[in-house]
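ugh ok fine here u go
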Amino acid sequence: MSVEVQSGDIDELGHASNLVYLRWFLEAAVAHSEAVGLPVDAYRAQGGVFVVRRHVIDYLRPALRGDMLELRTWISSASAAACVREGELRDPPSGALLARVTTTWTFVDVRTGRPKRIPESVRVAFGEPPRRVLRLGTRSRDEDPVVVAGDRPHAPHDDVLATPDRQAQGGVTPDATPRR
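structure:
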């Protein structure tokens, strides 16, 4: 997903506000969900919705007014009623990583607000991410994170930009290297 840093995104320090980074990551999550055929109404029809339980954002470099940035997101793991979505914000010309996010989403019943098992149809739409992540590491300091399950590293499961045209190009297989 492409974003342009607007004048209204700038805080008193002259760069994009921390809240704007959070908004961008949330918008990318929604766009990704819609791209796989799951707008909010589709979740409600199944009796549940995803809600954020936890955000962790690493702010690595500032985003400045007028910057054109690329944001990508993927589901890195899932359990019965929750999933972990990761994302990164990059400056395309330089490839510099500006921010990383890890968000835990819990699937909750719309009537009770209590956690509920993620429907199989939702799992299928996103592709089945690894259920158990043993450790998260990197190939080197300058490369993207890889998930290591057992002794076989693989790329994040759904490594595509959160746009319908990129979604149509397909994701990656567990043994594939992420696209740049």
